[in-house]
Design the sequence.
């Protein structure tokens, strides 16, 4: 069975903190993605990766960076968290078009 | 620039009736379309998809229709059940003309409520 695991379900951080969101998939998928979901805005792509150490900016990369050192793991980094980064963060992986999602991390930045 | 739009934020339907969720797109390079379902506190799960070479795809109670000339797709759920209550997202990708890396563009989502 397909499994994408996000390390935390809920996270509370302070403004200016460096935040790491971790995602692991066990399907040997080439592609991995980070989205944020906000009411009325749907899922917006932050970054994606199509291979180890490869990354591409999505639609809203500002304030974020990513790391993919191993095929199964894709990390999202908020270098200096701000209140407007309070959101639901979703990780996904895919081989082709169908993406498989983790359960999400609800991040609150105070 | 919202390339995939779901103009109805919410839809309310009686159990047993048909639910119709709509989605419009503007990018003519999109050639593969998907619907996802999302329950609260869970990630989206894949529901059904359709390629641009087809105009209809069925899977049990779920049917997706594609009208390429109108750049419009719809998801029909018949009969609707209370367990179908969730947020539904449509998504699109452009497979042709190069490597898309499976990148999807999502709509804003429609909250479906099915009343018993």
Sequence:
């Amino acid at each position: 069975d397909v499994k994408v695991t996000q390390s935390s379900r809920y996270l509370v951080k302070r403004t200016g903190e460096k935040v790491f969101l971790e995602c692991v998939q066990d399907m040997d998928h080439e592609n991995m993605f980070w989205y944020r979901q906000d009411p009325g805005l749907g899922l917006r792509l932050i970054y994606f990766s199509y291979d180890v150490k490869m990354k591409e900016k999505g639609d809203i990369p500002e304030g974020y960076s990513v790391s993919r050192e191993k095929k199964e793991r894709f990390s999202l980094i908020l270098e200096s968290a701000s209140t407007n980064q309070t959101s639901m963060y979703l990780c996904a992986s895919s081989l082709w078009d169908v993406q498989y999602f983790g359960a999400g991390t609800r991040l609150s930045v105070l | 620039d919202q390339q995939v739009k779901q103009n109805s934020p919410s839809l309310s339907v009686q159990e047993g009736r048909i639910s119709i969720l709509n989605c419009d797109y503007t990018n003519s390079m999109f050639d593969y379309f998907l619907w996802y379902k999302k329950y609260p506190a869970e990630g989206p799960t894949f529901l059904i998809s359709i390629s641009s070479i087809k105009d209809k795809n069925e899977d049990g109670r779920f049917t997706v229709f594609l009208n390429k000339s109108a750049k419009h797709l719809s998801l029909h759920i018949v009969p609707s059940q209370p367990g179908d209550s969730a947020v539904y997202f449509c998504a699109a990708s452009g497979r042709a003309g190069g490597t898309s890396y499976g990148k999807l563009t999502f709509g804003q989502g429609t909250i479906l409520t099915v009343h018993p």
Notes: The interface with chain B takes residues 4, 9, 30-31, 33, 35, 40-45, 48, 50, 56, 58, 90, 92, 94-104 of chain A (CB under 8 Å).
